[in-house]
Automatic annotation (TrEMBL):
UniProt keyword terms in alphabetical order: Ligase
Protein name: DNA ligase (ATP)
InterPro entries: ATP-dep_DNA_ligase (IPR050191), DNA_ligase_ATP-dep_C (IPR012309), DNA_ligase_ATP-dep_cent (IPR012310), LigD_ligase_dom (IPR014146), NA-bd_OB-fold (IPR012340)
Domain ATP-dependent DNA ligase family profile: 138-230
Alphabetized PANTHER family for the sequence: DNA LIGASE 1, DNA LIGASE 1/3 FAMILY MEMBER
Reaction catalysed by this enzyme: ATP + (deoxyribonucleotide)n-3'-hydroxyl + 5'-phospho-(deoxyribonucleotide)m = (deoxyribonucleotide)n+m + AMP + diphosphate
BP GO terms, sorted: DNA recombination; DNA repair
Disordered: annotated span: 1-38
Keyword flag Transmembrane: no
Family label: Belongs to the ATP-dependent DNA ligase family.
UniProt enzyme class: ligase
EC numbers for this chain: 6.5.1.1
Length: 348
C-alpha cells in the first residue's frame, strides 16, 4: 500500500497566515513567434554557494532549501525524461513525477527542481527519500516523492537560460498547478523580512533557505547568483572505514569520514549516530566488500576496518572542533553516484 503523500507545511508569518508568492499576470499564449532554440540534452545545474548570513535588498528572492535529489525534468511532445545532477536518466525511478510532468499540458519544457519525501509536518526528509528508493544502488521506484520546481530553463522551443530569474519564475508560476498538493509543486517565494527569515525557517524545523538574485540569467556552477544559508550544517563526506562494535546496531560503532584537500584525503572525524538497525546492517555488508589494507588516511585502531574511498555519506553536524573534526555529527544516508555529490573541500 502506498504511503499517503504529505501536504507541504506552509512557512507562516507572525500572523500565522500562509505565505504566498505575489500575484502575477498570466502569460499571453499569443506572444510573438520567436525563432525556436534547439532543446539541450542537458543543462549543467546552477548551484548554491554556502553563506552564513542572508543577503539583504530587493534584488534577492528567498525560497525554502529542500533536502532531496536535484532533478531536471525534460518534457517533449512524446516523452518525459528525468535527469539527475550528474546527468543520469532516472525516469524509471520517479514514475509519478514523470506522469505529472506529462499532465502539465506543455509541448516542450525543462524544469529544474528537487525531488523530496515529506515528513508528517511537511518538511523534506532525505533519509525517507533514500528509503523510498531502496537505499544507495537500490532498484525501487519512489511513489511517495514529490518535485518542488524552482526554475524553468526551456519552454515551447525557447531557451530561457539567458533571461533573468524574475521572468523565468513568472513563466514557471503559470505552468505549475497552484493547488500546492500535487506531485509537481511550485517552490514558492517566501515573503518575509530578510532580517527575520533564517531564524523563522530554523524555528519551524527547515534545513535552511536559498537566496537567488532576481535579475541574473541561469548560469551553471557556483557563481554566487544563488546562495544557501543553513540552519544546521549538512555536507557530503567520503567513508574511509568504520569502527567495529559488538553491541551497536548492525555491528558499526561509527563511520570514519574524510574530506578532500586537492588530490588528498583528510580525516575529519567519525559519526556514530543516525543509523537504523537494518540500514547499518546493509551498510556494513557493502563496506565489507570494499575492505582494503591500505587506508587512505593515517589512522590506527584495533577495531578499525578501512575501505576503499567509494561511498559518499551525507552528514549533518553542528560545527567544527578546534582540531578540525566534525562536532555532533549525525548520519543522514548515502549519496547516489548519479547524484554527483561533491565531497567536502577541506580548507587550510
Amino acid at each position: 500500500m502506498r504511503s499517503p503523500r504529505r501536504s507541504s507545511l506552509p512557512l507562516l508569518d507572525v500572523s500565522h497566515s500562509t505565505l504566498q508568492s505575489r500575484p502575477i499576470r498570466k502569460r499571453d499564449p499569443e506572444q510573438p513567434n520567436l525563432p525556436f532554440d534547439p532543446m539541450p540534452q542537458r543543462v549543467e545545474p546552477c548551484l548554491a554557494l554556502l553563506k552564513t548570513t542572508v543577503p539583504l535588498g530587493p534584488d534577492w528572492l528567498y525560497e525554502v532549501k529542500w533536502d532531496g535529489y536535484r532533478l531536471a525534468i525534460h518534457i517533449e511532445q512524446e516523452s518525459v525524461s528525468i535527469v539527475t545532477r550528474g546527468g543520469h536518466d532516472w525516469t524509471l525511478r520517479f514514475p509519478s513525477i514523470a506522469a505529472a510532468a506529462k499532465r502539465l499540458g506543455v509541448t516542450t519544457a525543462i524544469l529544474d527542481g528537487e525531488a523530496v519525501v515529506l515528513d508528517a509536518e511537511g518538511r523534506s526528509d532525505f533519509g525517507a527519500l533514500q528509503r523510498s528508493l531502496g537505499g544507495r544502488g537500490g532498484k525501487r521506484i519512489s511513489s511517495e516523492s514529490v518535485l518542488y520546481a524552482f526554475d524553468l530553463l526551456y519552454l515551447d522551443g525557447h531557451d530561457l537560460t539567458r533571461t533573468e530569474l524574475s521572468v523565468r519564475r513568472q513563466l514557471l508560476e503559470d505552468l505549475v498547478p497552484q493547488s500546492g498538493n500535487g506531485t509537481i509543486r511550485l517552490s514558492k517565494a517566501i515573503e518575509l523580512p530578510a532580517d527575520d527569515l533564517l531564524a523563522h525557517a530554523c524555528q519551524v524545523g527547515l534545513e535552511g533557505i536559498i537566496a537567488k538574485h532576481r535579475n541574473r540569467p541561469y548560469r551553471s556552477g557556483r557563481t554566487g547568483d544563488w546562495l544557501k544559508i543553513k540552519c544546521v550544517q549538512s555536507e557530503s563526506f567520503m567513508i574511509v572505514g568504520y569502527e567495529q562494535s559488538g553491541s551497536a546496531r548492525g555491528g558499526i560503532g561509527s563511520l570514519l569520514l574524510a574530506g578532500k584537500k586537492g588530490f588528498q584525503w583528510v580525516y575529519v572525524g567519525s559519526v556514530g549516530t543516525g543509523f537504523t538497525r537494518s540500514g547499518a546492517e546493509d551498510l556494513k555488508k557493502t563496506l565489507d566488500q570494499l575492505k582494503t589494507d591500505k587506508p587512505v588516511v593515517p589512522l590506527k585502531g584495533k577495531r578499525f576496518v578501512f575501505v576503499q574511498p567509494t561511498l559518499i555519506a551525507e552528514i549533518e553536524f553542528r560545527g567544527w572542533t578546534d582540531d578540525r573534526y566534525l562536532r555532533h555529527a549525525s548520519y543522514k544516508g548515502l549519496r547516489e553516484v548519479q547524484d554527483n555529490a561533491a565531497v567536502f573541500d577541506v580548507m587550510d
